Hints:
There is one protein chain. Helix content is about 50%, strand content about 15%. It is of the alpha/beta class. It has a single domain, classed as 3-Layer(aba) Sandwich (Rossmann fold), CATH 3.40.50.720. It has a 7-stranded parallel sheet, sandwiched between helices. Strands 7-8 form a two-stranded parallel ribbon. The longest helix is centred in the C-terminal third of the chain and has 34 residues, at about 255-285. About 35% of the residues are buried. Bound molecules: NADP nicotinamide-adenine-dinucleotide phosphate. NADP nicotinamide-adenine-dinucleotide phosphate binds near residues 31, 73, 101, 102 and 196.
Amino acid sequence: MVVDNKVTEFNLRKKMKHLSGKCIVITGASSGIGKEVLDRLCDPAKKNRILACSRTIEKLTGYDKNVTLFNCDVSTKEGVDQMMEKAEQVLGTIDVLIANAGAPYYEKFDYVNWERIQNIFNLNTISPIYTYTKYLKHLNGREGHMVFTISAMGEMAIPGYTLYAATKFAMKGFQEAVRLEAPKNLKLTAVYPVSTATNFFKVGAGEIDVGHPFPIQKADVVAERMIDGIEKAKKHIYPCRVFKPSKLLMNTIPPIKSVYWGIEKKRLKRFLEKKAALDLKLAEKIKV
Ligand SMILES: NC(=O)c1ccc[n+]([C@@H]2O[C@H](COP(=O)([O-])OP(=O)(O)OC[C@H]3O[C@@H](n4cnc5c(N)ncnc54)[C@H](OP(=O)(O)O)[C@@H]3O)[C@@H](O)[C@H]2O)c1
């Protein structure tokens, strides 16, 4: 089920008139939602200057010189430090910082592995929180705007995404608490996309395709609604308009949620069966 996918040139121009002449940092800019946001903000006519970051950002081509591509791994302290240093070098002041990089695991959470747990928290939770602290210091009282790409799964968990949901629930809690004590010069926006057609599901599940939770949106629609919300300095952006009413309905009539979760449990079961079959095949290949 694909919802709300009307992106028109008219809407785009109408909505982008304020987010211009800004110095912007965006993480996770090499694909998916981040790249769609980058593509909308980089129009030279907007006079934005942008530092676009990811680990493989050099694969992007064709941008004007108002966009600086910067390779870094933001799941490490060093990566975030380098990104902030580079931003200060090429942009000076950062008006808007969009902490968008993130990734899921799709799995049954039934193992003992400290590093695996730590890795997903490093990227999805510790990195944006640490980036926030660096950004606050960078601003030193100047006006700024920090945006966190969280997830609808930061409000409602789904089978197969236990650790991912935990990282995003943590971000939901972080933004809620920190805005109670954040200084007035800093605007904060949290974004809660539902399933979005990006590399996300491939990153989570590898080559095994068992579909995705519904509904699903296109990344350009999510990006457009994100930009619209950032321009309006919204505290919370829900790119999918049916998410909040659906959540309310599910909380009011719990059997609906049980049915939804039932569908997702079956999806996870299919995934695990396919994975077991693949692992077996691989083991047999190694034996030969
Ligand atoms: N797609 C969905 O269904 C969905 C739904 C809700 C929320 N979200 C959130 O939306 C955000 C963007 O995801 P997406 O859907 O656009 O997925 P995507 O297409 O896989 O994009 C993820 C981006 O993050 C970057 N990234 C991953 N690990 C990184 C690292 N260690 N250091 C620096 N950059 C890193 C990736 O680039 P490199 O690989 O080049 O580093 C890529 O640019 C994430 O925070 C995700 O949790 C996605």
